[in-house]
Amino acid sequence: MQRADLRNVAIVAHVDHGKTTLVDAMLRQSGAFGAHQELTDRVMDSGDLEREKGITILAKNTAVRRGELTINIIDTPGHADFGGEVERGLTMVDGVLLLVDASEGPLPQTRFVLRKTLEAKLPVILVVNKIDRPDARPAEVVDAVYELFIDLGADETQIEFPIVYCNAKAGKAAMDPDSVDTSPDLKVLFDLLLERIPAPTYDESHPFQALVTNLDASPYVGRLALCRIRNGRVKKGDMVAWCRHDGSIERVRLSELYMTEALERVDAPAEGAGPGDIIAVAGIPEIMIGDTLADVDDPRQLPIITIDEPSIGMTLGVNTSPLAGKAVDGKAPGTKLTARFIKDRLDRELIGNVSIRVLPTERPDTWEVQGRGELALAILVELMRREGFELTVGKPQVLTREIDGALHEPVERVSVDVPDDYVGVVTQMLSLRKGRMETMVNHGTTGWCRMEWLVPSRGLIGFRTEFLTETRGTGQLHHVFEGYEPWQGELRTRPNGSMVADRRGPTTGYALTNLQDRGSMFVGPGVEVYEGMVVGENARSEDMDVNPTKEKKLTNMRTSSSDHTIPLIPPRQLSLEQALEFIREDECVEVTPSDVRIRKVVLDASDRGRHRSQQSRARAASS
């Protein structure tokens, strides 16, 4: 049987190709906003971090009405670090809108989301967006998408996809790229969606089944489980069977049942929800993603959601710096400092984020957090610091595997767009990181070149900052997990050492004036520092202990140069992501609600010296 009045579709694309903007236009043209409502751009990106960074982090659903037809739309993240959100979103839908930029074409994350779509055997509608760009090249982009389908092993039915051209910002779509400007709205896209995305199917004789794909919380009713109903019907107050991961089954009553209408959750109608509907249910405080809600008399569990394994890990623990829990430079300290607070917060994150893992370490106040990439882990730390936590965060490390008795490491597919003048320097940088070039294409007369590389994941930790510096901020870099390859030997990706403070106290302009000739500084005058804190980057390869608190000696002798002032170069203010990229194995990042500081793991200079001596003796003995 089919639900002709319903369509479930996910919008997938590379980051910044216009998914959320297209959802905005679909909502506006379906009358989802009242006349009195303020219209906000990227209305689906509701989180503070999503708005600040301009990316979608969490998959969200909305419902659009076109006459008698209801279209449930899942807006998925475009960044591969949040791939778990994409995979969960695809379990809720029957088809996919694949968005591709009319100028940039398919990029690594396009490959990632399309691979997941093809694995799920979902039909695809290709939407070539941003057709209004002056450098749009729709014909070449469509050819590149066909090549991508073939490269990913699409079968004959999957590769016969319809194509629609779109200007999501203006809310226009057409079947021909030259007709988009004259199109009044997105009617062509809505009609194609109705025609090509299959209606939800179900077995009329099958008992009730629904798979939990996401979790949310309400201050009034507690934890909400977001589900897609596969078979049967359910309504508020029904008794259902809760099938857990471990195979146990418990009878529970649904205290609330909600459905989505535009951007709001509303109470489900009296007759309840049926097959294909996406619902939110309350009344099960300990329900988890991947659990099944089933008929109480005939409980049948659905397959548990499987997602890709983590590829990056980092340690996260209690802030052990001398400034922990203290107000510094007039800034309020964190309020959550203890290991118990941190462990409780990580446990809560595990409930709703299936992409990460938390493992114990040798120390009781430190844990290893594993995820898809640096950005996913940095987002978690950023959320925690905004909640009042103080943390010590270690250097991100790749997670290796042993395959057929040999050590293997994760490898990323890297896509680089740079002006032709920087091809040489980018090639040199990626070659030093054990990368190998796959393809290189010149964009005609534009003066730009696109290269695709396969690079070990550990070679990309800290690469983005150096890449932007060397390309004067003009280059574009995207990468996505490709697979595992044999370990490729030692890498030295950061050529410069650190300037490390050798004592505690406030920095002085006099000391920084002398130090800024040795490298770039991370702190300005009047900043409280401590022994072992990294205050700058040394121009040479080795670390250097410095005194940034040195004051000028006062005398009663006057000279012609005594009043001569030397201007201080403004310090480099590192963000959390930049700090995590910068640090070496013997360094970590101190994160508080108001500050991000880099420090040595071992603060005492003499202890660090003894540790280095032991390491060098061990290396000499092993060689």
Task: Jot down its keywords.
single chain; 623 residues; alpha+beta; 11-stranded mixed beta sheet; 8-stranded antiparallel beta sheet; 23% helix
- Find the count of extended strands (DSSP E, 2+ residues): 33
Structural class: alpha+beta
Radius of gyration: 27 Å
The proportion of residues forming helix, as a percent range, comes to: 10-25%
Shape annotation:
globular
Distance between the termini: 70 Å
Topology:
Blueprint: E1 6-13, H1 19-29, H2 48-53, E2 60-66, E3 69-75, H3 83-90, E4 95-101, H4 108-119, E5 124-129, H5 138-151, H6 156-159, E6 163-167, E7 172-174, H7 187-196, E8 209-218, E9 222-231, E10 239-243, E11 249-253, E12 256-261, E13 264-267, E14 278-282, E15 292-294, E16 312-318, H8 339-352, E17 357-360, E18 366-371, H9 374-386, E19 391-394, E20 397-398, E21 401-403, E22 406-419, H10 423-432, E23 436-442, E24 448-456, H11 457-460, H12 463-470, E25 476-486, E26 498-501, E27 505-506, H13 509-515, E28 519-521, E29 528-529, E30 533-538, E31 544-546, H14 576-582, E32 587-591, E33 596-600, H15 605-622
Parallel strand pairs: 1-3, 1-4, 4-5, 5-6, 26-31
Antiparallel strand pairs: 2-3, 6-7, 8-9, 8-15, 9-14, 10-11, 10-15, 12-13, 12-14, 16-18, 16-19, 16-20, 17-18, 19-32, 21-22, 22-24, 22-25, 23-24, 26-30, 27-29, 28-30, 30-33, 32-33
Helix pairs in contact: 3-4
